[in-house]
Design a protein that fits this description.
- There is one protein chain.
- This protein has 13 helices and two strands; from the N terminus they run αααββαααααααααα.
- It is mostly helical.
- The chain has a two-stranded antiparallel ribbon with strand order 1-2.
- Helices cover 67% and strands 1% of the residues.
- α4 packs parallel to α7, α7 packs parallel to α13 and α10 crosses α12.
């Protein structure tokens, strides 16, 4: 097949004379709405997994990010992530949305590019809540996600997508394996450790109170994820179609392997396990969606089930109360996907990407590992400082 044209964020940064393309704008309006829907979807997913007495509070911890993080993004965080700056952080030229108007950013109106990226910041912060539900007060939680967006999310987004040092080193992260999932996963692990476990943790079974909510949330997350990954092409083109198809296939493979693991380990398959498998597959394909073949996506999704599954099994035997297994699902799933991107990536499918291990470039795995390690260390340390 002919090579697909370009890494979208790199193209956005280097276009000398950008112009708005109506078809691209139409697709990205839809994609932005799809990603925004993922935060209410996460509320249902998390809300169903906790006890009934805490379900509303848990759901609100996701919903509040729509306001608190969304406004923080518009006022300052967007500028820190995508404004002109240095290798480590953007500047303040776009603070208060200064200079963010109807002019072209790549082939999109600048305001739309800002809004699309804002939906990523919102759900990333909301993901962390799954590690602290049922034991963190609402006010301090809101303060935490605002500071976390400014001090953790915005800098790492700049490193990977805004022209920062990881981007220039060639780290491949199509839609947020590093920026979203590893960031949120390690931050969740630190938060769970700092806060300690619930009083009745390990003393009694803490079971999901509404499994249909969990399935509804997982289904809506998958639906929104087509905008999450497909929209990260920032255009209505072949790259969007590739990312869309890979987002279609990878979670299917993860779900099948997850259900089989459940069956062979316990003798039965569960609805919560199937839903979790879908989410882990979506997490894992996120950094690779625009760089690997559809066949590669199937293999990536199948492989990704193993580390996250056994991490959840192990965590349940410890005192670590990562309530909804955010680190196992998003942290380890994101790391697995980021590293496997370095294995399965092919320039034949995206000329602006890089070949991976299977295409003869073993060094890309090392490059991906740098991105993983940098995010783990920075996000983990800063989350501890904020808390």
């Amino acid at each position: 097949m002919p090579p697909v044209t370009g890494s979208p964020l790199l193209a956005t940064l280097r276009d000398a004379a950008p112009a708005v393309v109506p078809a691209d704008t139409a697709w990205m309006l839809v994609a932005t709405a799809l990603v925004l829907l993922m935060t209410p979807a996460l509320a249902f997913f998390y809300g169903g997994l906790v006890r009934s007495k805490n379900s509303l509070n848990t759901m609100m911890m996701s919903f509040v990010a729509l306001g608190a993080v969304g406004i923080t993004w518009a006022l300052l965080a967007y500028s820190l992530a995508f404004g002109e700056g240095n290798a480590w952080i953007g500047g303040t030229a776009n603070a208060l949305l200064g200079g963010v108007g109807l002019e072209a950013k790549g082939t999109l109106p600048h305001v739309l590019f800002m809004a699309f990226q804002g939906t990523f910041a919102i759900i990333t912060a909301a993901l962390i809540s799954g590690a602290v539900v049922e034991r963190m007060r609402f006010g301090p939680y809101v303060a935490f996600i605002v500071l976390w967006t400014l001090l953790v999310y915005a800098p790492v987004a700049h490193w990977v997508w805004g022209g920062g040092w990881l981007m220039t080193r060639g780290v491949l992260d199509f839609a947020g394996g590093t920026v979203v999932h590893i960031n949120a996963g390690i931050s969740a692990l630190v938060a769970a450790t700092v806060l300690g476990s619930r009083k009745d943790y390990s003393r009694q079974a803490i079971l999901p109170h509404n499994v249909p909510f969990v399935l509804l949330g997982a289904g809506l997350l998958w639906f929104g994820w087509f905008g999450f990954n497909g929209g990260s092409a920032l255009a209505a083109n072949e790259l969007a179609a590739l990312a869309f198809t890979n987002t279609f296939l990878a979670p299917m493979a993860t779900m099948v392997v997850w259900v089989l693991l459940d069956y062979f380990r316990t003798g039965r398959a569960t609805a919560v396990g199937g839903a979790t498998g879908i989410v882990v597959g979506l997490v894992a394909i996120t950094p690779a969606a625009g760089f690997v073949s559809p066949t590669g996506a199937i293999f990536l999704g199948a492989i990704a089930a193993f580390p996250s599954y056994f991490a959840i099994v192990y965590r349940s035997r410890t005192r670590l109360d990562d309530s909804l297994d955010v680190f196992a699902g998003h942290g380890i799933g994101g790391m697995t996907g980021a590293l496997l991107t370095g294995v399965f990536a092919q320039k034949a499918w995206n000329a602006a990407g890089a070949d991976g291990l299977l295409a003869g470039n073993a060094a890309q795995v090392g490059v991906q590992a740098i991105g993983v390690l940098a995010s783990l260390v920075y996000a983990g340390a800063m989350t501890f400082v904020i808390l």
